[in-house]
Amino acid sequence: MKLIEILLVEDNPGDVDLAREALESNKIRNNLHVARDGEEAMAFLKKEGQYAAAPRPDLVILDLNLPKKDGREVLAEMKSDTLLKSIPVVILTSSKAEEDIVRSYNLHANCYISKPLNFHSFVQVVESIKNFWLTIVELPKEQ
User: Fold this and answer.
1) CA-based, 20 to 30 A from 100: which of 75, 78, 79, 136?
2) How far is 70 from 118, CA to CA, in rounded Å?
3) pLDDT tens digits, one per residue of 90-125
4) At which residues is 4-aspartylphosphate found (predicted)?
5) pLDDT of residue 27
């Protein structure tokens, strides 16, 4: 079975730990990469600098509220890039603002999920993402 490459773009260390824990507690082999801000995420995706040998992610889990370059900018840049636009992007953010939801879908996010406030619900959400995107959905091969 192929190792699934996931790029988590998240600046909150606690949320990174929760996501890692939820993804590790399953039988789906995955390799979680973490970018702590939008600039780091784009360097990873474009294989720049220290990320020259980075794998192409099968899935990006993206927070909107990031330092340096926010998630909306990352999403817009990804979806306007011929080499990156086919990578599915799951927005996982604390924002429940209707304008963020609409804008994310207008920028071609594949889904939008508001982060739950408690630990158990957060783990359930990450497991649901994993179950849907890594078990049911056919992901595109690298182009």
Assistant:
1) 136
2) 24
3) 999 888 899 999 999 999 999 998 888 777 787 788
4) 63
5) 63
d(CA 30, CA 70): 25
- Which structural domain, as residue segments, surrounds residue 32? 4-134
Is residue 28 pLDDT above 70, yes or no? Answer: no
Please report where in the chains the tokens 């953010």 appear, as a residue.
93
Q: Which of 128, 130, 138, 118 is nearest to 14 (CA)?
A: 118
Task: Return the amino acid letter for 95.
Answer: S
Domain membership flag for residue 62: yes
- Specify whether the CB–CB gap between 4 and 112 falls below 8 A: no
Distance of CA 19 to CAs 101, 130, 138, Å?
21, 10, 22
Measured between alpha carbons, how far is 101 from 104 in angstroms, rounded to an integer?
5
Tell me how far apart the 2 most distant CA atoms of the chain are, in Å.
39
Domain CATH number, residue 127: 3.40.50.2300
Is pLDDT larger for residue 31 or for residue 91?
91
